[in-house]
Predict the 3D structure of the following.
Amino acid sequence: MASAVRALLAMLELELRRLRHDRMELYSRAVQPLLWIGVFGPIMGAIRAIPTGNVPYTSFITPGVLIQSTTFVSIFYGLIIVWERESGILKKLLVTPASRYAIVIGRAMASGVRAIFQALIIVPIALLVGVRFVPNVGYFALALVAIFLASGGFAALSMLIASFLKTRERFMGIGQAITFPLFFASNALYPVQMMPAVLQAFARVNPMSYVVDAVRALLITGDLQNLGLDILAILAFNLVMFSLASANFRRIIE
């Protein structure tokens, strides 16, 4: 158990070192959220076509845009895994005392570190365009924890996909085919009740819906009525993805 924790912490430290030496990706990924929050949100809010209760539309979509940005980072984390496989780094990890489960969970949760920094860039942008957050430091910290955990699950999904795709080009295509359906068939931009019945059914099993709901409750509305269910759904998604990615880990390096 202690060795697994040490392995996980080593993966997180590795990711922090990568970010310290190359932060350009984080800055460039902030452009798309800026367009969503600074352009799309105010325009759609002025139309008043989407019922969001008493929450301004730009504030309503801010958690969704935040999760979209951090999830995209995690979904495409498999590209790093593909590169590590090609460079032989993954094979070297296998000869270490760390178990394959610790390696998979550690590599997946390392994407959570990147997602946290991505969130810390987007939140000030949202503040500048007038989004009002719940003034509670504890809620904000818990929202970051939810983002960190969910990013690990999506990164594990990415690693699972990487085990079947042997080139970065194929991975890019599959990654894009997954991310946008997850985003648009969730409650990120509009309430689930507005969707057709088929999409509502998909949104209810879409893990992104639960992450958005949790972060929206913690950052925007302060209504924590469904927070317990949201956290359980995130943990269940992570458990399934970690198990599948770990079971398929040897296939990743073949």
Notes: The two ends are 27 Å apart (CA to CA).
